[in-house]
Write a structure and sequence with these properties.
Elements lengths: L20 E6 L2 E9 L7 E5 L12 H5 L4 E5 L17 H15 L5 E5 L1 H13 L5 E4 L9 H15 L1 H11 L4 H10 L5 H11 L2 H12 L4 H6 L7 E6 L7 H10 L3 E6 L6 H4 L1 H15 L3
Parallel strand pairs: 3-4, 3-5, 5-6, 6-7, 7-8
Antiparallel strand pairs: 1-2, 2-4
Helix pairs in contact: 2-3, 4-8, 5-8, 6-7
Length: about 300
């Protein structure tokens, strides 16, 4: 596990759905992208957007299930996984959405359905506003609202301090290499119990200080107030899923966001944590496909 950033030849040798991977230059980044699914050009296109600290492995089991009904595209966000951060990369919410839009334009991809997780739901909403897309959105454990109270002021400042300290990501990455530490960290911070394969890939990423930097850089630049003020403009059908054991996003934040979205439903996913889509991909697939079948334009 040497090296600052994940290396595709070694760290990616057994990466989930590796056969679907390619690398694309767009928007100032060299993206790791995965395409999977039905070959028909007119099949609905489903875009998957992972959350902070994750990568395409987060969709390792759900993506093949969705690919039985859709063309599916997923990517490692800037600074995550095998998509390295640019020196001057704009990892604000607006900047991240713009970079992703450039990638999708380069790939000729216009989604018919978007599925996001955590911060990926906010990126999806921003992207829909910027591109004026009217497509269904499914958000697992959505991070759409600012943290309440004092945390709203402290969290960004803390993330900035962490990012500007060059030793933090190195220390965290070394801690992650200790046996069992990543699984314990995920259980504590997310409330989820993921399988050994998932823990293996999170360990691999968290052991790289460059990936940790990317996640911290994203958090340090994350502001949701402007998006919250515009959620009323997202008139597409939206389904927000709150896992009942989510240790990261409170139910109140999900319901607050839902009240601002004109065409929104909220679903409780009982017995799972923040990584519910990884804990039970079969149930996640059913949720997505049932909602999409009812909401996709014929």
């Amino acid at each position: 596990m040497s090296g600052r950033y994940p290396d595709w030849a070694s760290d990616g040798k057994d990466w989930p759905n590796r056969e679907s991977s390619s690398f694309v230059r767009a928007g100032g980044y060299h993206w790791h992208v995965q395409h999977m699914g039905l070959g028909a050009a007119d099949a609905p296109l489903c875009l998957l957007i992972h959350g902070t600290g994750a990568a395409t492995h987060s969709w390792r089991a759900l993506m093949p299930l969705l690919a039985k009904q859709y063309r599916v595209v997923a990517m490692d966000l800037p600074g995550h996984g095998f998509t390295k951060s640019g020196v001057t990369g704009n990892v604000t919410l607006a900047g991240m959405a713009a970079s992703l839009a450039a990638l999708l334009d380069e790939q000729g991809c216009t989604p018919d359905l978007i599925v996001g997780h955590s911060a990926g739901v906010a990126i999806a909403a921003q992207l829909m506003l910027d591109k004026r897309w009217s497509v269904p959105l499914v958000g697992f454990a959505p991070a759409l609202m600012p943290f309440p109270g004092l945390a709203a002021r402290i969290f960004p400042s803390l993330a900035i301090m962490l990012f500007t300290n060059p030793f933090v990501s190195i220390i965290f990455s070394r801690m992650a290499q200790a046996p069992g530490q990543t699984a314990k960290f995920l259980a504590r911070s997310t409330g989820s119990k993921i399988d050994a394969e998932g823990a293996k890939f999170y360990t691999r990423l968290f052991s790289k200080s460059g990936h940790c930097d990317g996640a911290i850089r994203m958090m340090a630049n994350w502001r949701l107030e402007a998006l919250g003020a515009r959620l009323g403009e997202v008139t597409s059908p939206v389904l927000l899923i709150h896992p009942s054991k989510d240790a990261a996003i409170p139910k109140s934040a999900v319901t607050d966001a839902a009240r601002l979205l004109p065409n929104c439903e909220v679903l409780d996913m009982q017995g799972f944590g923040h990584l519910a889509h990884e804990e039970d991909p079969e149930q996640a697939k059913e949720i997505v496909t049932v909602f999409a079948k009812a909401k996709l334009k014929p």
